Amino acid sequence: MKMMLVSFLILCACLLVPTIVFAEATNSNVVYGLTQGRLWATLDAALGLVSVVIGGLSLARSVRRVGNGGRNGAIVATVLGLIVISYAGVHLTIFTGDFGTGAGRAGAIIAILMGLIGMVLAGLTLARSRRTG
Fold it and tell me: Going by C-beta distance under 8 Å and a sequence separation of 6 or more, which residues neighbour residue 116?
């Protein structure tokens, strides 16, 4: 148990030190709170998460082969994933601040990844529905 605690503390220290150094390197321009960029990125990431959930549910429905095999959900997840990727791409071009400045760039990158994951799940569902039906 002590070894796990020591390992956890070392991991926390390794993650905390670069954060502190980066905050000092940006001349203390770190912004706390909810900014316009962070809000936009959070909404994009939330929509990306919805795309992943709908894609996962449609993939699960295609396994059960009930109804239309999850095609409608896959189409919704694909369209939602495309919308998320396009909005997050626009966000990355508009907000040019660095990480930690309140521009929401990290959230936009996460939103792009969520949109891609949702589209991949939807693609798997559509490929499975074409094979079986």
Answer: 81, 85
20: tokens are: 């502190």
SS3 93: helix
Res. 132: pLDDT tops 60: no
Which stretches of 43-124 are assigned E, i.e. beta strand?
none
**DSSP notation for 75-92:** HHHHHHHHHHHHHHHHHH
Q: Cα separation of 126 and 77, whole Å? A: 11
For residues 81 and 70, give the distance between their C-alpha atoms in angstroms, rounded to a whole number: 16
Please, what sign has the CA dihedral across residues 101, 104, 105, 107?
positive
Mean of pLDDT values over 99-107: 75
Rounded-to-integer distance, Cα 105 and Cα 91, Å: 8
Residue 82: per-residue pLDDT = 92
What is this structure's pTM?
0.69
